[in-house]
Write a structure and sequence with these properties.
mainly alpha
Amino acid sequence: MNTPLIPIGLALIMMTVGLSVRLQDFRALLHQLRAVTAGIVAQILFLPAIAFAVALITKLDTVYAIGLIILASAPGGITSNLLTVLARGKTALSISLTIITNLLAFITIPTALSVAFLVFQGSTAGGPSSSELYSLPFGETAMKVLAISALPLAIGMLFGHFLPNLSKRIEGPAKFVASAIFAAIVFTSFYSEWGNITAHWSTVGPAVILLNILAIGSALLFSHLFRLTSQQALTVAIECGLQNVALALVIAQFMGDGQFMVPSSIYALVMNVSVLILIAIGNKMSGDEKEAINKG
Protein backbone atom coordinates (compact mmCIF):
# COMPACT_ATOMS: atom_id res chain seq x y z
CA MET A 1 0.00 0.00 0.00
CA ASN A 2 2.53 2.57 -1.16
CA THR A 3 0.51 5.32 -2.82
CA PRO A 4 0.49 9.11 -2.34
CA LEU A 5 -3.31 9.04 -2.36
CA ILE A 6 -3.36 7.66 1.21
CA PRO A 7 -1.53 10.64 2.82
CA ILE A 8 -3.63 13.03 0.72
CA GLY A 9 -6.78 11.26 1.90
CA LEU A 10 -5.68 11.56 5.53
CA ALA A 11 -4.96 15.27 5.08
CA LEU A 12 -8.51 15.75 3.76
CA ILE A 13 -9.88 13.85 6.77
CA MET A 14 -8.00 16.08 9.21
CA MET A 15 -9.13 19.23 7.39
CA THR A 16 -12.73 18.03 7.70
CA VAL A 17 -12.28 17.51 11.44
CA GLY A 18 -11.03 21.08 11.71
CA LEU A 19 -14.17 22.44 10.01
CA SER A 20 -16.32 21.42 12.97
CA VAL A 21 -14.09 23.06 15.59
CA ARG A 22 -15.22 26.33 17.15
CA LEU A 23 -13.58 28.70 19.62
CA GLN A 24 -16.10 27.72 22.28
CA ASP A 25 -14.67 24.21 22.17
CA PHE A 26 -11.43 25.64 23.57
CA ARG A 27 -13.22 27.84 26.08
CA ALA A 28 -14.77 24.65 27.47
CA LEU A 29 -11.27 23.60 28.51
CA LEU A 30 -11.31 26.18 31.30
CA HIS A 31 -14.12 24.26 32.99
CA GLN A 32 -12.55 20.82 32.51
CA LEU A 33 -8.84 21.34 33.15
CA ARG A 34 -8.56 18.25 35.37
CA ALA A 35 -10.23 16.07 32.75
CA VAL A 36 -8.08 17.45 29.93
CA THR A 37 -4.91 16.94 31.99
CA ALA A 38 -5.92 13.35 32.79
CA GLY A 39 -6.60 12.63 29.13
CA ILE A 40 -3.33 14.13 27.91
CA VAL A 41 -1.23 12.35 30.55
CA ALA A 42 -2.95 9.03 29.87
CA GLN A 43 -2.71 9.25 26.08
CA ILE A 44 0.46 11.16 25.28
CA LEU A 45 2.70 9.94 28.11
CA PHE A 46 1.35 6.71 29.55
CA LEU A 47 -0.01 4.96 26.44
CA PRO A 48 3.35 4.82 24.56
CA ALA A 49 4.98 3.56 27.76
CA ILE A 50 2.38 0.79 27.93
CA ALA A 51 3.13 -0.12 24.31
CA PHE A 52 6.85 -0.43 25.08
CA ALA A 53 6.05 -2.70 28.03
CA VAL A 54 3.63 -4.84 26.00
CA ALA A 55 6.13 -5.21 23.13
CA LEU A 56 8.89 -6.28 25.52
CA ILE A 57 6.71 -8.64 27.58
CA THR A 58 5.21 -10.35 24.53
CA LYS A 59 8.64 -10.42 22.80
CA LEU A 60 7.38 -9.04 19.53
CA ASP A 61 9.69 -9.02 16.52
CA THR A 62 11.32 -5.62 16.09
CA VAL A 63 9.21 -4.59 13.11
CA TYR A 64 5.94 -5.34 14.95
CA ALA A 65 7.19 -3.78 18.18
CA ILE A 66 7.90 -0.52 16.38
CA GLY A 67 4.55 -0.81 14.60
CA LEU A 68 2.93 -1.05 18.03
CA ILE A 69 4.76 2.11 19.16
CA ILE A 70 3.59 3.96 16.04
CA LEU A 71 0.04 3.01 16.93
CA ALA A 72 0.32 3.95 20.62
CA SER A 73 1.90 7.33 19.88
CA ALA A 74 -0.83 8.22 17.38
CA PRO A 75 -3.33 10.85 18.57
CA GLY A 76 -7.01 10.35 19.39
CA GLY A 77 -9.22 8.80 16.73
CA ILE A 78 -11.10 11.08 14.36
CA THR A 79 -14.39 9.26 15.03
CA SER A 80 -14.08 9.50 18.82
CA ASN A 81 -16.24 12.64 19.00
CA LEU A 82 -19.22 10.92 17.36
CA LEU A 83 -18.78 7.79 19.45
CA THR A 84 -18.59 9.91 22.60
CA VAL A 85 -22.00 11.33 21.71
CA LEU A 86 -23.36 7.79 21.27
CA ALA A 87 -21.87 6.80 24.64
CA ARG A 88 -23.44 9.89 26.28
CA GLY A 89 -20.04 11.20 27.32
CA LYS A 90 -18.68 14.75 27.36
CA THR A 91 -18.52 15.85 23.72
CA ALA A 92 -16.68 19.14 24.34
CA LEU A 93 -14.00 17.27 26.29
CA SER A 94 -13.67 14.69 23.51
CA ILE A 95 -13.28 17.40 20.86
CA SER A 96 -10.68 19.23 22.95
CA LEU A 97 -8.59 16.10 23.54
CA THR A 98 -8.79 15.10 19.86
CA ILE A 99 -7.63 18.56 18.75
CA ILE A 100 -4.77 18.78 21.25
CA THR A 101 -3.38 15.28 20.61
CA ASN A 102 -3.61 15.67 16.83
CA LEU A 103 -1.93 19.07 16.87
CA LEU A 104 0.89 17.62 19.00
CA ALA A 105 1.28 14.49 16.87
CA PHE A 106 4.18 15.93 14.87
CA ILE A 107 6.15 15.96 18.15
CA THR A 108 4.80 12.90 19.97
CA ILE A 109 5.10 10.39 17.11
CA PRO A 110 8.74 11.08 16.09
CA THR A 111 9.76 11.28 19.76
CA ALA A 112 8.26 7.86 20.51
CA LEU A 113 9.79 6.43 17.32
CA SER A 114 13.24 7.77 18.19
CA VAL A 115 13.09 5.99 21.55
CA ALA A 116 11.70 2.83 19.91
CA PHE A 117 14.57 2.70 17.43
CA LEU A 118 17.04 2.73 20.33
CA VAL A 119 15.15 0.22 22.48
CA PHE A 120 14.34 -2.34 19.80
CA GLN A 121 17.36 -1.98 17.52
CA GLY A 122 18.66 -5.47 16.84
CA SER A 123 16.46 -6.98 19.57
CA THR A 124 15.45 -9.80 17.25
CA ALA A 125 17.27 -11.54 14.46
CA GLY A 126 14.40 -11.03 12.04
CA GLY A 127 14.07 -7.30 12.63
CA PRO A 128 15.18 -4.52 10.33
CA SER A 129 18.80 -3.44 10.20
CA SER A 130 20.17 -0.33 11.88
CA SER A 131 20.12 1.59 8.59
CA GLU A 132 16.48 0.63 8.02
CA LEU A 133 15.51 1.68 11.54
CA TYR A 134 17.07 5.09 11.09
CA SER A 135 15.64 5.65 7.61
CA LEU A 136 12.97 7.97 9.06
CA PRO A 137 14.75 10.54 11.30
CA PHE A 138 13.02 12.77 13.82
CA GLY A 139 12.93 15.95 11.72
CA GLU A 140 11.65 14.26 8.58
CA THR A 141 8.99 12.36 10.54
CA ALA A 142 7.88 15.54 12.30
CA MET A 143 7.51 17.41 9.01
CA LYS A 144 5.53 14.58 7.41
CA VAL A 145 3.12 14.30 10.34
CA LEU A 146 2.80 18.09 10.41
CA ALA A 147 1.97 18.12 6.69
CA ILE A 148 -0.68 15.37 6.78
CA SER A 149 -2.20 15.88 10.23
CA ALA A 150 -1.61 19.05 12.25
CA LEU A 151 -1.43 21.50 9.34
CA PRO A 152 -4.65 20.32 7.58
CA LEU A 153 -6.41 20.31 10.95
CA ALA A 154 -5.32 23.91 11.57
CA ILE A 155 -6.40 24.94 8.05
CA GLY A 156 -9.83 23.44 8.61
CA MET A 157 -10.12 25.27 11.95
CA LEU A 158 -9.18 28.60 10.33
CA PHE A 159 -11.63 27.99 7.49
CA GLY A 160 -14.41 27.29 9.99
CA HIS A 161 -13.56 30.39 11.99
CA PHE A 162 -13.36 32.93 9.14
CA LEU A 163 -16.02 31.37 6.88
CA PRO A 164 -18.48 29.88 9.38
CA ASN A 165 -21.54 29.91 7.10
CA LEU A 166 -19.77 28.18 4.23
CA SER A 167 -18.12 25.66 6.56
CA LYS A 168 -21.52 24.76 8.05
CA ARG A 169 -22.93 24.11 4.58
CA ILE A 170 -20.10 21.82 3.53
CA GLU A 171 -19.48 20.20 6.93
CA GLY A 172 -22.08 17.44 6.45
CA PRO A 173 -20.97 16.32 2.96
CA ALA A 174 -17.31 16.70 3.99
CA LYS A 175 -17.80 14.39 6.98
CA PHE A 176 -19.44 11.80 4.75
CA VAL A 177 -16.51 11.93 2.32
CA ALA A 178 -14.01 11.85 5.21
CA SER A 179 -15.70 8.76 6.69
CA ALA A 180 -15.53 7.05 3.30
CA ILE A 181 -11.84 7.91 2.95
CA PHE A 182 -11.12 6.62 6.47
CA ALA A 183 -12.92 3.35 5.71
CA ALA A 184 -10.99 3.05 2.44
CA ILE A 185 -7.63 3.53 4.18
CA VAL A 186 -8.41 0.88 6.79
CA PHE A 187 -9.87 -1.53 4.23
CA THR A 188 -6.87 -1.09 1.93
CA SER A 189 -4.49 -1.81 4.80
CA PHE A 190 -6.46 -4.95 5.67
CA TYR A 191 -6.39 -6.09 2.06
CA SER A 192 -2.72 -5.37 1.41
CA GLU A 193 -1.46 -6.83 4.69
CA TRP A 194 -3.99 -9.64 5.19
CA GLY A 195 -1.31 -12.26 4.65
CA ASN A 196 0.90 -10.76 7.37
CA ILE A 197 -2.08 -10.27 9.69
CA THR A 198 -3.21 -13.90 9.49
CA ALA A 199 0.34 -15.26 9.54
CA HIS A 200 1.28 -13.34 12.70
CA TRP A 201 -2.10 -13.08 14.44
CA SER A 202 -1.03 -15.50 17.17
CA THR A 203 1.92 -13.25 18.13
CA VAL A 204 0.78 -9.74 17.19
CA GLY A 205 -2.94 -10.13 17.95
CA PRO A 206 -2.62 -10.73 21.72
CA ALA A 207 -0.21 -7.79 22.05
CA VAL A 208 -2.64 -5.48 20.23
CA ILE A 209 -5.61 -6.64 22.31
CA LEU A 210 -3.58 -6.21 25.51
CA LEU A 211 -2.59 -2.69 24.45
CA ASN A 212 -6.23 -1.77 23.85
CA ILE A 213 -7.33 -3.15 27.22
CA LEU A 214 -4.51 -1.40 29.07
CA ALA A 215 -5.13 1.85 27.17
CA ILE A 216 -8.72 1.94 28.38
CA GLY A 217 -7.73 0.71 31.84
CA SER A 218 -5.05 3.38 32.26
CA ALA A 219 -7.52 6.05 31.14
CA LEU A 220 -9.97 4.94 33.82
CA LEU A 221 -7.15 4.83 36.38
CA PHE A 222 -6.05 8.40 35.65
CA SER A 223 -9.68 9.49 35.66
CA HIS A 224 -10.01 8.08 39.17
CA LEU A 225 -6.75 9.71 40.32
CA PHE A 226 -7.92 13.07 38.93
CA ARG A 227 -11.37 12.60 40.51
CA LEU A 228 -13.32 12.89 37.27
CA THR A 229 -17.02 12.24 36.87
CA SER A 230 -18.18 8.99 35.31
CA GLN A 231 -19.02 10.78 32.04
CA GLN A 232 -15.60 12.42 31.90
CA ALA A 233 -13.89 9.11 32.67
CA LEU A 234 -15.85 7.41 29.89
CA THR A 235 -14.83 10.15 27.45
CA VAL A 236 -11.15 9.87 28.33
CA ALA A 237 -11.37 6.07 27.98
CA ILE A 238 -12.83 6.38 24.47
CA GLU A 239 -10.14 8.88 23.48
CA CYS A 240 -7.33 6.63 24.71
CA GLY A 241 -8.82 3.43 23.30
CA LEU A 242 -9.73 4.85 19.90
CA GLN A 243 -6.47 5.79 18.17
CA ASN A 244 -6.10 7.64 14.87
CA VAL A 245 -5.43 4.40 12.99
CA ALA A 246 -5.44 6.16 9.61
CA LEU A 247 -2.51 8.35 10.68
CA ALA A 248 -0.69 5.37 12.21
CA LEU A 249 -1.09 3.43 8.95
CA VAL A 250 0.27 6.34 6.90
CA ILE A 251 3.31 6.69 9.20
CA ALA A 252 3.86 2.93 8.99
CA GLN A 253 3.67 3.24 5.19
CA PHE A 254 6.39 5.90 5.28
CA MET A 255 8.64 3.37 7.05
CA GLY A 256 8.91 1.41 3.80
CA ASP A 257 7.93 -2.03 5.13
CA GLY A 258 4.30 -3.17 5.11
CA GLN A 259 4.85 -5.23 8.26
CA PHE A 260 4.97 -2.02 10.31
CA MET A 261 1.26 -1.64 9.44
CA VAL A 262 0.14 -4.98 10.89
CA PRO A 263 -0.45 -3.84 14.54
CA SER A 264 -2.48 -0.81 13.39
CA SER A 265 -4.50 -2.92 10.94
CA ILE A 266 -5.43 -5.36 13.71
CA TYR A 267 -6.13 -2.52 16.14
CA ALA A 268 -8.65 -1.01 13.73
CA LEU A 269 -10.82 -4.06 14.36
CA VAL A 270 -10.09 -4.47 18.07
CA MET A 271 -10.75 -0.85 19.04
CA ASN A 272 -14.20 -0.84 17.45
CA VAL A 273 -15.20 -3.87 19.52
CA SER A 274 -14.02 -2.25 22.76
CA VAL A 275 -15.67 1.07 21.98
CA LEU A 276 -19.01 -0.68 21.43
CA ILE A 277 -18.66 -2.02 24.97
CA LEU A 278 -17.92 1.49 26.27
CA ILE A 279 -20.96 2.85 24.43
CA ALA A 280 -23.15 0.19 26.05
CA ILE A 281 -21.71 1.03 29.48
CA GLY A 282 -22.25 4.75 28.92
CA ASN A 283 -25.88 4.25 27.92
CA LYS A 284 -26.50 1.99 30.91
CA MET A 285 -25.01 4.56 33.30
CA SER A 286 -27.18 7.26 31.74
CA GLY A 287 -30.26 5.08 32.07
CA ASP A 288 -29.47 4.29 35.70
CA GLU A 289 -29.02 7.99 36.49
CA LYS A 290 -32.37 8.87 34.90
CA GLU A 291 -34.07 6.09 36.81
CA ALA A 292 -32.54 7.31 40.07
CA ILE A 293 -33.73 10.87 39.36
CA ASN A 294 -37.27 9.65 38.58
CA LYS A 295 -37.37 7.63 41.80
CA GLY A 296 -36.09 10.61 43.74
